[in-house]
Amino acid sequence: MTTLTTAPVSRKRSAAFPEPDRDVEQRFVIGAVSWASYQDIARALTGRHVRLTFDRGSLEFMTISGKHGKLSRLIGQLIAALADELGIPRGQYGDMTCDNESAMRGLEPDECFYLTNEPLVRGKDDIDLTVDPPPDLAVEVDLSPSQRDRLSVYAALGIPEVWRYDGSILAVHQLDKSGSYVEATSSRYFPAIPIAGIAAFIDRRLQLDEASLLRSFREWVASSTK
Q1: Which of 6, 10, 46, 66 has a Cα-to-Cα distance from 194 of 20 to 30 A?
Q2: 53 to each of 57, 108, 222, how far by Cα in Å?
């Protein structure tokens, strides 16, 4: 039997009917979902502002707030700028679905990048994780608590590094030999750049426009690697 679990939802009240607060991310979970059904649902929601997490038959839906979208794009821009300034080849695949039937797991990161493995997927528009390597780095903006352990899904998919931002703290999680994530102070792909310094530029988004922020960030990266 399919079960339904709903997360608490914050709502604004209108004079007539309660309306969902579009600035609050909403989640709900259904159980006993087959792999085929998950794939059908994912295809049906292509292009919608809904993020899915599939974990061995459990499927979570989450709406994306404007703040979430802005933060994920900004962090993606910072990573792209890092790779460019350090001369690292990159393939940026955005929020593409990462899934693997043998693992019975799937999700959409907020942003994902091929760095070390970029030559292996160069020229490919469609990635198949049954034959292609997983992204080297994924971005996880986590402004509201998920009912699923998304890091365990990333681990099962073999994604080596996840940058997780909860609205105030940027943490880097690296997959170790045991298949678990451990927190690190720098990225394995940009070891000379402290994560605390990158987080400071995320905070500066409230004072600078994006172009000025990225220009200042590139200057900081260049000075940090001299």
Answers
A1: 66
A2: 10, 7, 37
Amino acid (1-letter code) at residue 88: I
Q: Is the pLDDT score of 4 beyond 50?
A: no
- Structure-token match 């790779």, residue found: 83
Q: Name the β-bridge partners of 61.
A: 28, 52
Q: pLDDT per residue over 188-209, tens digit each?
A: 999 999 999 999 999 999 999 9
**What six digits make up the tokens of 56?**
């061995």
User: What is the distance between the alpha carbons of residues 132 and 45, in angstroms, rounded to a whole number?
Assistant: 24
| Helix 210-224 and helix 66-85, axial crossing angle in degrees, nearest 10 | 40
Cβ neighbourhood burial of 133 (10 Å; 0-12, 13-18, 19+): middle
